[in-house]
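## tool: complex_structure
## caller: assistant
## args:
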Amino acid sequence: MDADASAGEKERDGQTVIDVRGLSKRYGDFEAVSELSFEIGEGEVVGFLGPNGAGKTTTMRMLTGFIPPTNGVIRIAGADIFSEGLDARRAIGYLPETPPLYPEMTPAGYIDFVAKLKDVPRAKRKDAVLRALTRCGLLDVSGREIRQLSKGFRQRVGLAQAIVHEPKVLILDEPTVGLDPIQIREIRALIRDLAATGGQTILLSTHILAEVEIICQRAILLHHGRKVLDQPLSEIVADGRSLEEVFTRVMTRETEGAAA
Amino acid sequence: MRHTGTIASRELRSLFVSPVAYIVLTLWSVIAGTFFLASLIGFQERLIQLTQFQMLQRIEMMNLNDDLIEPFIGSMWVIILFLLPAVTMGLISSEKANGTDELLLTSPISIWEIVLGKFFAGVGFVTVMSLIVAFFPALLFIYGEPEVGKTLSGLLSLLLVSVTYVAVGVFASSVTRNQLIAFILTFVLLLILGMMLPFIVEISMAGSGLGRDSSISQIVNWMSTGSHVERMLKGLIDTADLAYFFVASAVFLMLSKTVIESARWR
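## result:
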């Protein structure tokens, strides 16, 4: 495990935009995340993997400043999420597990509202909103009420909300969950497109392994709140193994290790 | 603080696409109209009676302010206690139920901006409610000559009470994600704050040796909104009363901020 972990922390090109050190979250006796550390460099697209309840959402909520950690330090684009919270949060675009939408608003009105919250300068706001709506394929429905939109469109509105201020860091919590196969393909293409053209650092959580293989360059595997694997995808599947094999092997080893 | 306006205007717009706002405003207008009409008829009947009995001195003492506008506005601030919880219940609780609190709290804005944004949205709404009430005394200026200052002071008392109630509503809405619980909690708090405190004093003082002038009963009386409205209705604007509304609002807004902040730590 040590070898796996250190491989992921090798020197990378560009500067570190997500820096996590000794992150823990305890709810009473239950430790949802424990001693988690990792660095993500500029422009990296990282998949956050793990079974349900592994601590993915909890970690992402701490990274975005929604909940405070019990222990540990988080720096986003060089700013501490606590002491320099405003700067750190300004650098983040975040799509929570359930897109944070106001059903009575229109996508256009909603994205404009978010742009104001995220401090997009007034002069650029109209363009920024239009660009976000365009990129997420929302132009045709931009005047309809969000409550009338299908789940796939609502997910896109959630994504548009995350990218409207062109953040350095995109944190996406299960962006394709609950969508039909066509919608999943569209959202994946959109994320890949964002990574390719925006140069944004993307951290996305999922339990669909294929998704990581398609979108990500690196995978971080969580199990019971601990990091059990952190490697570039190319290394993981280097000797012809599939991600699923590696995933299953590591998980079994962890479970047995815990039992022993 | 520039996000305060952003949040307030979004909230107001959402409020006005929901049926709740229109139901409340309709009820409010109908009740205001009925009460005004009742006050007007009462005023007229008394005038007729006094004329029949030739009590000229009593007639001279009657005026539109004391005998019509004051009781009218005085009853409206009791009515608002029943209607306002429906408006404020969703202010913060619906953000939690929608999951949109996750957007607000991960945006580069402060919790104060969220609390004040919600508060000012509510203030905007009760301003509309006060203007509806103001319409009726305004009619009297066409047919008679009420005192402008006294009328405005009465209306101001209604607005200030409502604003304080909004702060209470923001607080109640911040402690739960359930709108019904927020509604009931607001209602109970407003009942205590607006009407029940003087009775509580009476009851608790009756058994003890403390008189009504004891410092405890004075403090509790000071906390009650009712005691501060009465003087303003009579046209007396006292800084002590203004300070009360300011302090009461500030206390409940600070409580809301603390609740939202501490909810993150759970």
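## assistant note: Chain B has twelve helices and no strands. Chain B touches chain A at residues 3, 6-7, 10, 13-14, 17-18, 98-110, 264-265 (CB under 8 Å). Handing back to user.
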